[in-house]
Amino acid sequence: MFLRRVSEVLRQAGHGSVWPAPDRSRVPGRRLAEMICDLRRPVMALVLTTWLLAGGALVLAQISLGDGITARGYLPAVLSEDPLAGREVRISAIYYDTYAPGEKDEAIQLWNVGPRDVRLKWWQLSDGSRVAVLPDISLSPGQFLWCAREATAFAAEFGHPPDCEWGADTDPAIPNTQGNVLRLSNSGAVITLRAPNGTLMDVVAYGEVTPPSGWEGAPIKPYTDAGFGAEGQVLYRKLDQRGQPLPDTDRAQDWASDSEDLLAGRRVRYPGWDLEAFWPPYVVTETAYLTVTIAPDNMFETVMAHIQAAQESIAFEGYVLESVPIGLALAERARNGVDVRILLEGAPAGGISDTQRWITEQIVKAGGQVYYMVNDRQDAHDRYRYLHAKLMLFDDRVVLIGSENPTRDSMPSDDKRNGTLGRRGVALLTDAPGVVARARALLATDLDPAHH
Known about the structure:
- It is a single chain.
- α4 packs parallel to α5 (324-335) and α5 (324-335) packs parallel to α6 (354-365).
- β10 and β11 form a beta hairpin.
- It contains 7 helices and 25 strands.
- The strands form 6 sheets. A 7-stranded mixed β-sheet has the order 19-25-24-23-20-21-22, with helices on both faces. It has a 5-stranded mixed β-sheet with strand order 14-13-8-7-18, with no helix packed on it. Strands 15-11-10-16-17 form a 5-stranded antiparallel β-sheet, with no helix packed on it.
- It has 3 domains: 2-78, no CATH class; 89-278, Immunoglobulin-like; 290-446, Endonuclease, Chain A (2-Layer Sandwich), CATH 3.30.870.
- The chain is 16% helix and 29% strand.
- By secondary structure, it is an alpha+beta fold.
- The longest helix is centred in the C-terminal third of the chain and has 14 residues, at 433-446.
């Protein structure tokens, strides 16, 4: 009756909900505050002393009954926040079979899909046998964070630091978890996320493990068809058109590696992908000039005219660059002070041609910059299987998006009055500010040697 009565009073006073506290004898804590509640009975007062623990809180209740009679007892903890707040924080990605030696770049992503901020202080991540207690970090609605084993190893693979680390303190600027060092087994594990009071907020099972309570059906498996290996894959949730995780059903079907889903499944992801930034379709309604150019009929002339007219910068992202006239025009612009930056595929089918090697040498000698997206060079791993974009940006004002690379076949420079070589292709040029801004962001992200 005593415990029930105190709980009722606390609820009426608006002090929150009641939940079980951990074993006080096993967890160090510190006294937070004392408060007095009037139980609306003569000569009777309740003094509560709150002790904050690693896994929750504990309340020492001292009740005065009058005539020098005092009763004491431990109560379940009382929180000032709703303990159900944060149920919409999801485990949204897992990086477990990693590239780094010793797999020091293991990582887990958490995503707030709810409508309010969630403070993650004292929340607990577990790999099934070890527990890491999160530092004092918060997630705004619609935002995500990464927590990694070691921050420096994670940053080397992903191109940006994580928001916390659970292993060695490799970066003083990154807050550390408390508790154990998690180990994400390559063969499989059960990952759980719990609130400070121990309430299960999310559970994810992957690999060869027995499905735990709260999980339905088979665990998540990486998508390994079509030549994709499990090593280096980031398991991640399916996303909607806004770039937010789909509703959680605690099944493998929630995840993008789902081999049965022909539309949203059968997908892979690797470190360094800026998936969250570029996943949502980009739609703009703007007044702009549009030019549609056709290969092989007039694409060479159109591209050459824009290269020669550029006064400030030219950025090109493509699979190959094998058109000698276009290559020499880019070198000429670089020689005249135009900022020429080029990103090409490092392992095109058949290898890099001698023609391209010569062209890129001329551009670099003229002051331009040429980069390749490569794999396994100085411990690097390329982010995508192939760089297959065809994108050019002129003076940050006009963008070309097309189907063709600058080659002799796709952009022939011969006299076309008596027929021509080449294959059919098309490209769109526009000065639409939103489209140009999106292309600029994509090029800046892909061609970012400082981070990738």
